[in-house]
Specification:
By secondary structure, the chain is an alpha+beta fold. The chain is built from ten helices and twelve strands. The model has no long low-confidence stretch (mean pLDDT 94).
């Protein structure tokens, strides 16, 4: 038999159990990031969540032993909730390390508790990103009603060890200027619908709000709230594409590598298949190299073959894959 406990208000000795046993700690899929760095980042985030009154941390135990055998952590998403007008929560962590014979039971008990506790706190939908390596926990989430919305592949470029390829087009790649903002927002509003991403794939989310989500995301990127750098593709004075990134650096000294993550990228459909995407990605790598970053990472939908073909051409390599799943109250 299994039991679950809310860990928020308990002594935090459970943090050490998680650091020892949980497989999917921050940047677990970046080989160059040390175990010590992963654990430092994980500890910092767990203690932050423990102090966050909106977050919920759950532990699962077998009733005949005091040992923690799994945990989950979740919190409401303020920005997403405001944008869609519904209470959206994110399941941040979901890990099980019970003995193999007990893992299915522990995973299902924990998934049921996640569902119950989030909906009891007014959540209308719960979103989660789960590595495909955690297939057993994915099955547990599916058993309580989570549905797959997106399959993703994450890629890595080692800036210290790989040469940045030369530019192949005559386009200009320059930092974002304030007078670019409206053109970037307009482009973001119309280029993501066909992919489809996890928002557009969810039939419960209105298409117009999904389109507008990316427009708002670009607006926040231009303001510096959602991006640290934007590379603008300029062809004969016309803005025809962009790439945004977050410079994660060394996470305030907690990580042994300086990381940059590419977030959003798009090319106007009329300017595709001309090498602009490769050069846009190159421009972001150049910027990171100037910041003395060590590693660049990027994720994309598994069905986004054109983008992945470009990544292969440039020397990126795939390092992990994952699913995004959504659960809706009453569905």
């Amino acid at each position: 038999m299994m039991k679950t406990v809310t860990l928020n208000d308990t002594a935090n000795d459970w943090v050490d159990d998680i650091l020892v046993h949980h497989r999917f700690q921050p940047f677990w899929w970046v080989r160059q990031v040390s175990t010590e760095s992963q654990q430092a980042l994980m500890r910092h985030h767990l203690l932050q969540l423990q102090q966050d009154e909106t977050a919920v941390i759950l532990g699962v135990y077998t009733k005949d032993t005091p040992d923690l055998t799994g945990f989950a952590a979740m919190q409401p998403l303020a920005w997403d909730t405001a944008h869609f007008g519904i209470d959206i929560w994110r399941l941040l962590y979901f890990g099980i390390w019970a003995k193999s014979a007990r893992q299915p039971e522990a995973a299902c008990v924990l998934a049921e508790t996640v569902k119950r506790e989030a909906f009891r706190r007014s959540a209308q939908t719960i979103h989660v990103w789960m590595p495909l390596d955690a297939i057993q926990t994915i099955h547990a989430l599916e058993s309580v009603g989570f549905r797959t919305m997106e399959s993703q592949v994450y890629w890595l470029f080692d800036i210290n060890r790989q040469p940045i390829p030369p530019q192949i087009t005559n386009a200009s790649f320059r930092p974002h200027r304030p007078d670019d903002t409206e053109a970037l927002i307009s482009l973001a509003r119309r280029v993501y619908t066909p992919i489809p991403d996890r928002f557009h794939a969810d039939p419960h989310l209105p298409t117009d709000l999904c389109d507008e989500l990316y427009a708002s995301w670009l607006r926040n990127s231009c303001s510096g709230e959602a991006a640290d750098y934007i590379s603008v593709i300029d062809v004969a004075g016309e803005v025809v594409g962009y790439g945004t990134l977050r410079y994660l650096n060394d996470q305030n000294g907690q990580c042994n590598k300086r990381l940059g993550q590419f977030i959003l990228g798009a090319i106007d459909p009329e300017h595709r298949q001309r090498g602009l995407y490769d050069d846009m990605m190159r421009s972001l790598l150049v910027w990171l190299n100037d910041q003395q970053a060590d590693i660049a990472i990027v994720g994309t939908q598994t069905n986004n073959i054109a983008t992945q073909t470009g990544l292969v051409r440039m020397g990126w390599r795939p390092v992990c894959s994952a699913l995004s799943l959504h659960l809706w109250r009453g569905r």
